[in-house]
Amino acid sequence: SAGDPDHDEL
Amino acid sequence: NALHVIALLLLLLLLLSCGISGKSQVLFALVFTTRYLDLFTNFISLYNTVMKVIFLLCSYVTVYMIYWRFWKSFDSENDTFRLEFLLVPVTGLSFLENYSFTPLEILWTFSIYLESVAILPQLFMISRTGEAETITTHYLFFLGLYRALYLANWIWRYHTENFYDQIAVVSGVVQTIFYCDFFYLYVTKGRCQEGDGHGIPIPA
Q1: Do A1 and B55 touch (CB under 8 A)?
Q2: What is the phi/psi pair of residue A6, to 5°?
Q3: What does the pLDDT look like over B191-201, one tens digit per residue?
Q4: A to B CB pairs, distance under 8 Å
Q5: Per-residue confidence at B190, pLDDT binned at 50, 70, 90?
Q6: Which of A1, A9, A10 sits opposite B99 (nearest CB)?
């Protein structure tokens, strides 16, 4: 989801 | 990400010739704009910020080069994919299927769904022109390779962190499927056609 670095696609 | 940057740099080289779909590049600029708004909301790491800025810069420079700087070499007759056929369903789906109904999250979801289909105008264009310039095929190859590596990354992370992002995975698989058709042509036709330097003939 947005802004979640651990669980986000760049 | 390195492969994605390579694809972007190849793309910049490509702009000196025609054969690139301006519409796909506009869609990619929209993808990165709607996804990287968190640049202004929360700092994650220098690498994260630098990569996002690089992606944003490259995509906007690309759109500028296609439509302004090298507009003479832009083949607009063949870049005719109707973007509304992509933008309307993607917008609707991002309101229906998302993790939370907040502006930032909806925009993030929109960018994930849009990225899945952003390459379609490009694939449509090379099917219309009947062939793809060699550098276009390399651009698509690196972009497809970056997608395939994401699949490997998700499998790896699922086995190590027991986590996966359903929206990103499903849309990433859809996007990769669109490249498979191209990969098949790249491998089967690329070899024998490489010699005459006219790129790969793409059957309609």
Answers
A1: no
A2: -70, -30
A3: 434 444 455 66
A4: 37
A5: low
A6: A1
